[in-house]
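Flavin reductase: structure tokens wanted.
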Amino acid sequence: MAIDDELFRAVFSAHPAAVCVVTAAGPDDVPSGLTTSAVTAVSMEPPLLLVCVGTGSRTLAALRHSGGFAVNFLAAHNERLSDRFAGKSTQKFAGLAWRPSERAAGAPLLPARHLSAVAECRVHQEVAAGDHSVFLGRVEGATVHGRAPMLYHERAYLNLPAPALAGP
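Answer:
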């Protein structure tokens, strides 16, 4: 017996998850991106992660076109940026000082001040899964910025405190 949509959402809203912006370069290097919490590590050898992208997403076409993507892990207190990329606007990158990734087929890397980390990936495999495509990405480069992450939990943003600095 299948569960209903509301119960399915409730189960996963009880599980805190990192808030990420997945980006890719589309035709003519037009940047595309979406907010998601459907990101997880898969393998250490080779280094693989997965992201899930809805079949109705404009970013899906850009990801398929370029063969690469970046996972921009948002730092705490970046709700406005998360909301910007969760929407349907075609101007998500307007006024945002992003740069193209050399390791991830030109995928936009968001400004470091907004991030706790970033992973630059090449598509390793795409798998159809219901109303989403699951992309396995081979991590070709990564940066950790040392900022507290922003999480999504119980259908709301959750900001963790800044990590304690290591001292002598």
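DSSP finds three helices and twelve strands in the chain. The two ends are 57 Å apart (CA to CA).

Cheers.
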